[in-house]
Amino acid sequence: MAAIKNIEDLSIDEINRELNNGAKFVVFEYCISILIMTFKRGTDIYFVKSDESAIKHSIGYTILTLLLGWWGIPWGPIYTIGAMFTNFSGGKDVTDEVLKHLNQNAEG
């Protein structure tokens, strides 16, 4: 599983309280193109608290995608639009997968 960012200094109880208030674990996307090769990747997992915007975590990846993503033909523009849509809509919610993984590790 990828590293989880933005949970530093939070206890398990604080994370659970945030999750109950609407926090989530998300992955953002970015795209880099080199002429005929285009790479679309996901980021590490980010914990987005209930009172914060996901945009502050995704803006760097969105700018990277805008600058370097669209160059590749034909997938560059397609992946760039897809990554921007994902990032501006708050990222891909992976909360259920993270919780399943954490529960499996806790059981044994």
Write the layout of secondary structure elements.
Elements: E1 4-5, H1 12-20, E2 24-34, E3 37-48, H2 55-68, H3 75-88, E4 92-93, H4 95-107
Helix pairs in contact: 2-3
Q: Counting H and I runs of at least 4 residues, what is the number of helices?
A: 4
First and last CA, distance: 16 Å
- The parts where pLDDT drops under 50 for at least 5 residues are none
Q: Record the strand order, biggest sheet.
A: 1-3-2-4
Strand proportion: 25-35%
The profile of the biggest β sheet is: 4 strands, mixed
Radius of gyration: 16 Å
Any idea what the shape is? elongated
Order of helices and strands: EHEEHHEH
- Averaged pLDDT, please? 93
Could you explain the architecture of this structure?
The protein is α+β, with helices and mostly antiparallel strands and 108 residues long. 46% of the residues lie in helices and 25% in strands. The chain has helices at residues 12-20, 55-68, 75-88, 95-107, and strands spanning 4-5, 24-34, 37-48, 92-93. A 4-stranded mixed beta sheet has the order 1-3-2-4, with helices on both faces. The longest helix has 14 residues, at 55-68. The two termini are 16 Å apart. The model has no long low-confidence stretch (mean pLDDT 93).
